[in-house]
Amino acid sequence: MGRKWNNIKEKKASKDANTSRVYAKFGVEIYVAAKKGEPDPESNRALKVVLERAKTYNVPKAIIDRALDKAKGSVHEVYEELRYEGFGPNGTMVIVDALTNNVNRTAPEVRSAFNKNGGNMGVSGSVAYMFDTTAVIGISGMTIDETFEMLLEADIEVRDIMEEEDQIIVYAEPEHFSDVQEAFRSAGITEFSVAELTMLPQTEVQLSGETLVQFEKLIDALEELDDVQQVYHNVDLGE
Q: Which keywords does the record carry (predicted)?
């Protein structure tokens, strides 16, 4: 499973290079999560997850506070959570998660991005069954053995623990996302290089040449859409 860190790393690098767009999307995601319950991460798990992710992307506190204040206010914006599934070049699999206040805008934009870049939209369920929702937490300062022992003592079962580029990457069940982080904090680790609830493909494929270029254009086109929050796929983008 360790190779899947490649795609998470590539995604973070891409988002780091487009900070203003990323911050705006996090603002919407934080607002929507806060509206699901209390605007307090200690009592709102969805909000806690989003805020932990935001920290790893260095989202400014001012943007986080603005989104939380908006959620606490009297103005209520309605956003729908949508998932689109489709296929890219060579039958590659793509999942697109969106938050939108205008479904009639989002669906045509996503479909257009697919059609213009060698792909096509699929029906619900055509792709998602090949992916697993997974908590991915990355840290520095511990070995694999130390991490395994710490999580064992905390009675937390994980899917895998890998060492990637001087980092320890833990793959866990989604319901253990916060538990793994709390275990690290108890061990003195408070900074996370990655803290994601993501969709990992059960198998990955590799592309090359023009096909790879076209696929990357498809992913870029999808991620540039304002309503799109996350794009998952089954292509190994690592070297």
A: Cytoplasm, DNA-binding, Transcription, Transcription regulation
